[in-house]
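Key result, reporting period 2: structure in, sequence out.
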């Protein structure tokens, strides 16, 4: 019997690579993406393309409204910070943090997993080249996994829920190199927090800077079209 997994697919480098890793590990993959009130639709369009290109069994796109309480530059009328260099990214939690996003998204993925009879959830969180989000840390994932097993029917019946974070300690360059080995087409991915109306990346937000740094350090050409060119 083929084992199944649900992968949270945002449309970016990390989630696309995580999807490739899940498939390479022998899982029949189901992808879940979210329209959560983010300021643009390009990442969802990217997720759709990735799901098709990588042959997921089913791609579920859910609509939820995190913009209704705002509080983030990704969901509210707050300017996205632009920086000159990746070194300018601070250690503080940035305004692009979406309150409780991974708690909410993982909860929904686990709800779907219960219905599907799936025990394995993959999420592309990372603590090396990231913007300082608290819900990307291993401590959070471990605590959430414990809560999920205490608070679900599957968990209390002994059908343990496992949350896999295969990228958690990898740099962006290491992630990209791994994805290339697995055949990920990074031209399909979208990372920018503040693209123009054509979907072209700004080149100056934290996500763009980390993406450019990753490709440069990996020695692989970045397929992204940026509006800002140094």
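The corresponding designed sequence is given below.
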């Amino acid at each position: 019997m083929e084992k199944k997994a649900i992968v949270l697919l945002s449309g970016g480098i990390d989630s696309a690579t995580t999807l490739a890793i899940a498939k390479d590990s022998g899982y029949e993959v189901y992808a879940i993406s979210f329209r959560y009130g983010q300021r643009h639709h390009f990442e969802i369009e990217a997720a759709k393309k990735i799901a098709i290109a990588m042959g997921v069994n089913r791609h579920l796109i859910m609509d939820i409204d995190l913009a209704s309480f705002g509080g983030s530059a990704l969901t509210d009328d707050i300017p996205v910070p632009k920086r000159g260099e990746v070194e300018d990214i601070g250690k503080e939690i940035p305004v692009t943090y979406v309150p409780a996003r991974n708690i909410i998204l993982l909860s929904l993925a686990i709800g779907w997993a219960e219905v599907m009879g799936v025990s394995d959830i993959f999420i592309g969180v990372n603590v090396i080249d990231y913007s300082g989000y608290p819900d990307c840390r291993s401590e959070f994932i471990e605590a959430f996994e414990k809560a999920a097993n205490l608070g679900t029917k599957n968990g209390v019946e002994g059908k343990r829920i496992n949350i896999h974070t295969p990228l958690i300690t990898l740099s962006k360059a290491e992630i990209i190199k791994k994805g290339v080995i697995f055949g990920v087409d990074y031209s399909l991915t979208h990372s920018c927090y503040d693209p123009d109306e054509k979907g072209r990346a700004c080149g100056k937000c934290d996500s763009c800077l980390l993406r450019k740094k990753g490709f440069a350090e990996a020695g692989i050409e970045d397929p992204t079209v940026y509006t800002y060119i140094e």
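The chain has one domain: 4-218. The two ends are 52 Å apart (CA to CA). This case is discussed further under Risks and Mitigation.
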